[in-house]
Amino acid sequence: MADSKVAMIVGGGSGMGAASARKLAENGYTVAVMSSSGKGEALGNELGGLGFTGSNLSNDDLKRFADLTLERFGRIDVLVNSAGHGPKGPLLEISDEDWHKGFDVYFMNVARAVRIVAPQMIAQKSGSIVNISTAWVDEPSDMFPTSAVARSGLTAYTKLFANQYAAQNVRINNVLPGWIDSLPEKDERRASVPMQRYGTAEEIAEAVLFLASEKSSYITGQNIRVDGGLMRSV
Question: Is the separation of the CB atoms in 34 and 12 below 8 Å?
């Protein structure tokens, strides 16, 4: 495994993050997996890599995770950022505290991890950062207000990072999932998708793998929709 590329998956305990960790491991990456639940630690160990329990809301936890990964494997080639769930509710009833919490969950999770890991990638002159965002970033939905607002900010951040570090061969892209089977299925949601089905966490993981790999070596600063045609905007 010494020669394989190293992928850090933050928020990899379940759902799309865990599917991405498995997919990367299946394709020859050494994986380091972190989640707050303990499931990421178990998965990282199961996949023959590194497992770590910590929160992506904590700079200290992320720093310890990155330091352990570097100590064990000597490099970081890929960073995958997955997120938990932030506050929801009617727009005018969302408190300051819940707006801050939404930004913590949906934007700062990326800003924190990238601030810690990107300098290593810049020093290596190579790296790929993949953020699992949301299909609704272009068409904000009142179902997910804090996600819509914070992840629009993530799109701007992604462009700024891409512009600054593309010359160092460090790339960053966002995967935009629609209705995915890691959520409970509802008939009206399924009916709203042109493909008439939910996507699978596995299909998101395939997009993550593509953006992590050299097959996407000329792609940076992009939002890639994986939503079965759900979003109508051009």
Answer: yes
Compute the distance between CA of residue 194 and CA of residue 192 in angstroms, rounded to an integer. 6
Q: Which is it for the CA torsion 61, 21, 72, 76, positive or negative? A: negative
Sign of the C-alpha dihedral computed for residues 104, 107, 109 and 111 taken in this order: negative
Cα radius of gyration (the chain): 17
Specify whether the CB–CB gap between 208 and 24 falls below 8 A: yes
User: pTM for the full model?
Assistant: 0.97
Q: What is the pLDDT of residues 31-43, one digit of tens each?
A: 999 999 999 999 9
Query: What is the amino acid identity at position 89?
Result: G
Say what angle helices 15-26 and 39-46 make with each other, to 10 degrees: 10
> Which residue, among 205, 113, 116, 103, has the nearest Cα to 154 in the 3D structure?
103
Cβ atoms within 10 Å of 201's Cβ, excluding its own: 21
Q: pLDDT of 41-74, one tens digit each? A: 999 999 999 999 999 999 999 999 999 999 999 9
Rounded Cα distance between 58 and 55, Å, is: 5
